[in-house]
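Hello,

Our lab assistant flagged a job as stuck in the queue for most of the afternoon. It eventually completed. Since we weren't sure the result was trustworthy after the delay, we are filing this so someone can double-check. Below is the sequence as submitted and the structure that was eventually returned. Let us know if re-running is recommended.
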Amino acid sequence: MKTENEERAGLLYGIGAYGMWGLVPLFWPLLKPAGSVEILAHRMVWSLVFVGVALLAVRRWGWMRELVRSPRKLGLITVAATVITVNWGLYIWSVNTGHVVEASLGYFINPLVTIALGVLVLQERLRPAQWAAVGIGFAAVLVLAIGYGQPPWISLTLAFSFAVYGLVKKKVNIGGLESLAAETAIQFLPALGYLVWLGTQGTLAFGSHGAGHTALLAATGIVTAVPLVCFGAAAIRVPLSTLGLLQYLAPTFQFLLGVLYFHEEMPPERWAGFSLVWLALTILTWDALRTARRSRAAMEAAKATAAAAAEAEGAAGAEGAAGATAGATQAPAPAAPARQAP
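-- returned structure --
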């Protein structure tokens, strides 16, 4: 059973992970004048370097043998690497071109898209509150599409790519650090090849704008891996319901940065769309907490019933043993043998 200190540490790890993901829009603009694709390539290359060092430190290599022997898992890892490449690249481009608010919307609606994929792909059944949340989320997308004059394709692409990534990761079922190592290993050669090509064209930003800029590009690996490590540490220490609440920290921080720091516009139709999304997430969170509370109560009741049954069985056994002992005590003593005549 987890101690109070472990849960407190897990909560801090979770806040740290989602807090870093929420503040990362402040980092990508620092990498200009490097273009979004070059930043993405550096993120892939340096993430593998950082994760490789981390795995070397903890000496976790056994998973590689199992992965190589499983073509299905290798295929799924390749799919995961592809969709997360789309997600990373689009997010970097969105931030550096002034679409932070729209990018934050993608991560707000991601839980709704994940639920929809669960129904379509995994044939999961939804509770009425979940159906209501998904319906309200769909209405929010319509409102935003009308306001934008087109569907919010940045938000939808980010939400769907990350939802597919999560679905594939669930099927692969390997640790976060190991999964990131496998994904970036697949990304590494194309990314490195692109950087080499930029160098031959004389347009590579790496090393051309001072040591500080070069160090920042190399730090993309740390920016990618550290929140993931913190998330992994939180996931094993706090309940899933707590993680579900913490996940809204990241898009909330991103939204606030977009409005208050980057001063992006928020016309009335965008506020209306976001309000509908927040309503859907409120319903979803309320339903998740209620379900978790009921499950916990049912589990405690089952434990109490099992304990009572075990106690009753023990008492019955003790009573039977006592009865047997009493019967043995009340049985007549055997007659003394007759004395032989001299």
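-- support follow-up --
The delay was a queue issue, not a problem with the job. The result is valid. The chain is about 80% helix and 0% strand. The CA atoms of residues 334 and 340 lie 18 Å apart.
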